[in-house]
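Worked example 2:
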Amino acid sequence: MSREVASGASASAYFVGKCLSDLPAIIIYSLVFTSTFYVMAAPNAHFTQFFAIILYFEWTMYGLGYVCSVMFKAQENALIMAVVASLLAGLATDNMDPQKSAAWSRWTSESIFLAEVRADSLTGATRELFQQYLDVSSKFNLDNWSQTIVASIVYGVVLRILSLILLRRRQQTIEANT
């Protein structure tokens, strides 16, 4: 993105165009991954739930990619940063630690877990048993499905806003130097 801004293009216009043009790719990649994974792994989750999880995770990862591509001039550095950030995203977490709870992968893992156990269909003693286990192990909540999806959407939006701010700042720096 920095290269386009350095050539004199409007940062805002380019960024909005880039985000909009990436939407079909996000949807197609998510659909292909979900279809392949669903056939090979045969998860317990409904296809639509699993697709929604992967779609919003891709949405978040694209946002992270935008931030990394603005932060680093070299493409290799941006790629390395995106991979490292994804690997260190706090997957092994609990709800009580705010730092770990702020990681996008924590919300994705909770939504995958809730979809896999079909939390919406658990009742009575089975639901209580699951919730007691979750209270001890991961602090996930069986009623958090919509919250996990909203968190993924919010992460994607926040990362995009951050990358736009960084891109505009870079454009201002370039304009000041010329």
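Residues 2-177 form one domain. The helical segments are 2-6, 11-41, 47-71, 75-87, 98-101, 104-116, 124-137, 145-177.
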